[in-house]
Amino acid sequence: MIRLSVVVPVYNEEGNIYNLYLSVTDALKGKIENYEIVLVNDGSKDRSSLLTCRQIPGISSN
Length: 62
Description:
Elements: E1 3-10, H1 17-28, E2 34-41, H2 48-55
């Protein structure tokens, strides 16, 4: 079983977060069964953190 963590630093990316999520999930679909996407807010001044928690299904804000 392959496990993968995709770690992405996020800085003022409120307009791109959902598309990033879709791109990563599309790229991994059918190739890797178990993976996680870790978005690391790097002190954004915009709403990146808020949108990360609201736009992506099943995400937790740990």
